[in-house]
Design goal:
Number of strands: 12
Strand content: 5-15%
Oligomer: single chain
Shape: globular
Largest sheet: 10 strands, parallel
Order of helices and strands: EHEHEEHEHHEEEHEHEHHHEHEH
Structural class: alpha/beta
Length: about 350
């Protein structure tokens, strides 16, 4: 597998169930072109199933296709697809079709999966997810890249082929150091999500870099609220952050998976350390400090707080970040400044 060249430009992307925009289809499809017009670089869509409480999650590949047809420049990614739930021939066809229809704008984020009820519903063994991921991943790459492959008793060409060669950039999400090391050793790109505490990201990125991974390409997600002032941003963010962290504490999965500690899930601390909340100047300073430590390739803004932030605040954050925060941050980074040293 070939490795993409190191990122020389800091990307600003949007991520979440509906790329972090809105869970109603009409508003979401309107905000996709608006995000493109504001200069965002990518829209990343989560794969979620069943009831999600405060949000309605659409089928990610169908939604990505709809957004691709309403935009012309912005990249369309997945944050992430749970690979063991997919049949690799069908997935290869759908990803390649999206890459063709979007003129080569697809970013393919995948994971082993961390939600056991999905595996139970699919009739799969949750404990076998790593082996299932490896098998599906290897076949998917083969189907996307090789002219002909053996399927059953026949040799076939899986069509169409991607515009991006050999295939769209691949990002692998994991909360575990051993998983991050696997990603680095395979020459793939690590994906770090918005739920992770900074200490969780630090552990994973260290393991990834030690295994040969290029940190200068890694996307890092953060919950972001931008206001005209620090006080205005906190007034908007505090109720959403309290609902979100209360749900995390009830579920217990954050601590179990080492995404955050119990202390880091206290709402005030979480809003100060995990989320990025404040005026344009404050938000730019937080992002600059994070980038100085990790040297990541793109910041993924999760603006909807999983459906808990009012839509007016989501739009305000999108506009203020694009017009007031981004200009305070470097758009072009010399190659020597990408990655940690």
């Amino acid at each position: 597998m070939t490795t993409q060249p190191a990122a020389a430009r800091l990307r600003f992307d949007l991520s979440g169930c509906g790329a972090g925009l809105d869970e109603s289809a009409t508003s979401l499809l309107e905000l996709g072109p608006q995000a493109e017009a504001l200069g965002y670089d990518g829209l990343w869509i989560n794969e979620e199933h069943f009831g999600q409480g405060s949000r309605v999650c659409l089928s990610p590949i169908l939604l990505a296709t709809a957004l691709a047809m309403r935009t012309s420049r912005i990249r369309i990614g997945f944050s992430v697809l749970v690979l063991p739930l997919f049949e690799p021939i069908r997935l290869a066809e759908e990803i390649a079709t999206l890459d063709v229809l979007s003129a080569g704008r697809v970013d393919l984020g995948v994971s082993r999966g961390n939600t056991s009820r999905y595996f139970e519903a699919w009739g799969l063994d949750y404990e076998d997810r790593s082996a299932a991921f490896d098998a599906c991943f290897d076949r998917l790459v083969q189907f996307l890249t090789e002219p002909k492959v053996t399927v059953g008793s026949r040799t076939e060409s899986i069509e169409p082929k991607c515009v991006q060669r050999p295939h769209p950039p691949v990002y692998v999400a994991t909360y575990r150091e051993e998983g991050a090391a696997w990603v680095g050793a395979r020459g793939l790109t690590l994906f770090q999500g918005s739920q992770q505490s900074v200490s969780s990201i630090r552990r994973c990125i260290t393991a990834y870099e030690d295994a040969g991974g290029d940190v200068g390409k890694v996307p890092i997600g953060r919950f972001v609220v931008v206001g005209e002032s620090d006080a205005a941003a906190w007034r908007a963010a505090r109720p959403a952050g309290e609902k979100l962290t209360a749900g995390y504490r009830r579920g217990g999965e954050q601590v179990k998976r080492r995404i955050s500690t119990e202390e880091e899930l206290q709402s005030e601390r979480w809003l100060n350390e995990v989320a990025i909340v404040g005026s344009p100047e404050t938000v730019a300073g937080r992002i600059a400090a994070l980038h100085e430590e990790f040297g990541f390739g793109s910041l993924q803004l999760v603006t909807g707080f999983l459906g808990n932030l009012p839509q007016a605040e989501v739009v305000r954050t999108l506009e203020l970040f694009a017009k007031e925060v981004r200009q305070r941050l470097p758009r072009v980074l010399p190659p020597t400044e990408t990655g940690r040293h």
